[in-house]
Amino acid sequence: MRSALDIARDVRSGATTAESEMATSLAAIRAKNDELNVFLFIDEEGAIDAARRVDERVTRGEDVGALAGVPIALKDNLCQTGVPTTAGSKILNGWRPPYSATVVERVLGAGAVPMGKTNMDEFAMGSSTETSAFGPTRNPLNVERVPGGSSGGSASAVAADMTPISLGSDTGGSIRQPAALCGLVGVKPTYGLVSRYGLIAFASSLDQIGPFAKNVADAAALLEVIAGHDPMDSTSLPEPSPSLLAHVNDGIAGARVGLVRELFDGADDEVVAEVERAASALRDAGATIVELSVPELHLGLSAYYLIAPAEASSNLARYDGVRYGLRVDAEDVAAMNEATRTAGFGAEVKRRIMLGTYALSAGYYDAYYGQALKVRTQLIDAFRRAYRVADVLLGATAPSVAFALGEKTADPMAMYLSDVFTIPTNLAGDAAISVPFGTGHDGLPIGVQLLGPGRSEAGLFAAARVLELADGRS
Amino acid sequence: MASPLRREDVAKVAKLARLSLSEAELDEFTAQLGQVLEHANDIAALDLDGVVATAHPFGLINVVRADVLRPSLSRDDVLAMAPDAQDGRFAVPRILGEAP
């Protein structure tokens, strides 16, 4: 499939039409969706309408936008008016949101054509897309493997050439890890850079929406469209969207890159080898490599698995069978709440709700949740110290290439460990990007991770572009 | 450091979270949640006296808007999504028990 930027250029010039690009995308979705289970809902009618509107505007000579006629896939925790939205859960099966997320409005405003809603771990809780109530998504590069998660559907949509770009959400690695496992560029933006209005909440102090793409420039273009202040999100940063695409080819000459031991320790040898090769490539492009140890990063996983479930237990209290979604009737309201939640939530969601409820309960609050919030402070301070000696940090995205379906479903702790390198960035509220770099066994892709302080996205895209070129992709 | 998680703790937490668990689920969740909490003991055991807690990466400050009327979702649209509605309100099963 052609890049998003090529499609948008040709739609604007009249060399192609949004409707024909939409038809190409729809045909690819129809051909592969039964096998891969990527889309939970294919919005054929909406896509045709959106594409025709773009083509009419082109005909009238209007400026259609940066994503003119580009098919896009949306993770199913992003609300779109009238389009079924489940967050991968039975408890929201059949629900149609009465409003659209800000990011959905912005991609539509830039001329993109939403093709439908993609599968995900239930309420974004998982690292393989296997906790979805609607069955797992398969990795298009090897259908016996997981695509990663929780945004596995949005990653697979791009990897399977169904759409050139997609949106996911990243609470502890849910964009970067599937990007790595599917051979894509995936970005966790700075907390507050992208509005969360209309994103079904998991852990509100960690969640961010971000792009998937096959190349760095497309990811930068999509992030530029969705970023920028939104009065509907009280945590939205005050400034307008930064200039990102214009900096993609800035290079990395003169920058200091911190190679952080804790961000690849424990990864498979083939992953460590690619991280080291990435360091060499950045050095060849004029960066200075600084070897760093940031021991506090080891505490990230524990802090995350207290903070995120604690926030989730509160956010998911709203699913009580009263205002929307599933209701299982019972004799009184408390029994109805309990019957509804018991039938509507899957095992992983129940685990996290209980973990969070426990961490917040009297007698355990100080030992668990309170300690985790203090560790979060220590992590932020540790990153701050690292960014005094390095402009960008380098590590692995995931400890291994894509693992087999079913391999980790019986062992939650093993599943949680697949996010060990991505979690610290969410706790710090910083930015990070996963970029494909080399392959491991069975030809499966490996992703390396570039991390920067808040609002450093332009520099991260430039560094990622250096790696993209060094890995032989133009 | 907190004591190991017991089966009755999990049962109590499930009740608080409005979830009912089967006997088999109770056993499974006790083991699995215990494993996660055991991992979390690395931070439960740290001496962090004097460290300030961070609840939000950049310090959440309340944001307010001017108190002026503006369009919002219509009541009919919102009630149409509800499992049950009556007289312009959400309807639920009875809340109070029979009078003694």
Describe the structure.
The complex is a heterodimer of chains A (474) and B (100). Helix content of chain A is 39%, strand content 13%. By secondary structure, chain A is α/β, with parallel strands linked by helices. The longest helix of chain A is centred in the C-terminal third of the chain and has 24 residues, at 366-389. The mean pLDDT of chain A is 97. The two termini of chain A are 15 Å apart. Chain A is globular. In chain B, β1 (85-86) and β2 (89-90) form a beta hairpin. Chain B has helices spanning 7-16, 23-44, 75-80; strands spanning 85-86, 89-90. A two-stranded antiparallel sheet of chain B has the order 1-2.
User: What would you report as the Rg of chain A, rounded to the nearest angstrom?
Assistant: 21 Å
Instruction: Give me the strand/helix succession of chain A.
Output: HHEHEHEHEHEEHEHEHHHHEHHEEH
State the end-to-end distance of chain A.
15 Å
Largest interface, by Cβ-Cβ below 8 angstroms: which chains and how many residues each? A-B, 70 and 52 residues
Q: Figure out the total of helices of chain A.
A: 15
Order of helices and strands of chain B: HHHEE
Please give the alpha-carbon distance between the first and last residues of chain B. 46 Å
User: Which blocks of ≥5 consecutive residues of chain A have pLDDT under 50?
Assistant: none
